[in-house]
């Protein structure tokens, strides 16, 4: 092979992205778990983990730029390295959402919010994490079909988000005195659901690597207003 | 297959020059096989491909330079201004005036800078204002400011990059329609190379430019269209893919092109 060192470096960077992706994926469900179980220790662990994720992004971006400067990748190689930066940016943002759940866990600690309000949180996180795994697998295996099909799973996340949102609206109306804490929790709900949208962007990057086409897969719709009178 | 958003009409119809079913032979050996290529006017087209794929041979076919190789012969047509330049009634000298060539190694004559520029124009019976033509040609070749005070110095006293721009000025002075360039920067240092590339960009306002290059970054930087040629098992060159340079270097359609431009060929 004429460019074996270059190919080795591309493989190494791909591995690094996948390692990062696996960590981020794991922390999505942990974030929901911290919230639901009011686990402050786990929340702080996730907040701390975000520093590592940020460092990984900086390192990968530097590695990619070095590769661009020294190897002048073109065609699929160029699409691949450009997409690495795109995918890592999405992973970093996803982990910001995880970090947010950790911070909200700390903020609402001690507030009497019923567990039922978060009944869908673990499932939303689980489905979002599953979507992320599917997207990363599609990227790992150059599986175009999976990259194209994974965004469909967002509908399940969206349905749960909508169901949760209704709960929040109803509960808020009845517990107006807790509105600040409820509002912060609703941000976390939103964050967990946004993970699926960010995952769709990862699918778009994977499709770009494989086809050269930049596609825009529409993100989730906002729920209609439910309680205004 | 041909992208056309950069084309402008010319007296040759849609294309500046066109190769139709071109086969080129050296004796019994077929060096170029069934090449069909249409070149956009006032654009830069790069011909790339591995050594021996026939890209220089194809380039030379466009101004009948292969005629000078006794064992070389050709099938097919090169259409220019509505006529096949290989028709019996076409004067090859006139063809070479309208379709000029710049070679790999700068080849100024052992004469003054002034006479170098004027050389081809004089041979072609130029009767106008010589000073004006020299200045205009040297300005177009981005050399005027460097040589305006020493026009009577020998062309050979210039640096390699300046010599190549002098050769470009000499080519421009005969007012061609098309300029063929066979690796025009491969003998130059990186800075001189970039100056030539800048110059080529400026020249496309007035000329159609075909450039053979081994340097893929150069093709990517300096051309609007790229044609990739490869060699088949009989060592005959053939066209693999042609398209806009942006597309060829971001998303080539042929796997062979992908392998070649990413350096994984063979």
Largest sheet of chain A: none
> Compute the gyration radius of chain B: what is it?
18 Å
- Category by helix and strand content of chain B: alpha/beta
Question: What order do the SSEs of chain A take from the amino end to the carboxyl end, as H and E?
Answer: HHHHHHH
Shape of chain B: globular
Secondary structure: number of strands of chain B: 10
What does this structure look like?
The complex is a heterodimer of chains A (229) and B (266). Chain A has 229 residues and is mostly helical. Helix content of chain A is 78%, strand content 0%. The longest helix of chain A has 33 residues. In chain B, the strands form two sheets. In chain B, strands 6-7-8-3-9-10 form a six-stranded mixed β-sheet, with helices on both faces. In chain B, strands 2-1-4-5 form a four-stranded antiparallel β-sheet, with helices on one face. In chain B, helix 3 packs parallel to helix 6, helix 4 crosses helix 6 and helix 6 runs parallel beside helix 7. Chain B starts with 16 loop residues before the first strand and ends in a 5-residue tail after the last helix. The N terminus of chain B is likely disordered. The chains are: A mainly alpha (229), B alpha/beta (266). At the A-B interface, helix 3 of A face helix 8 and helix 10 of B.
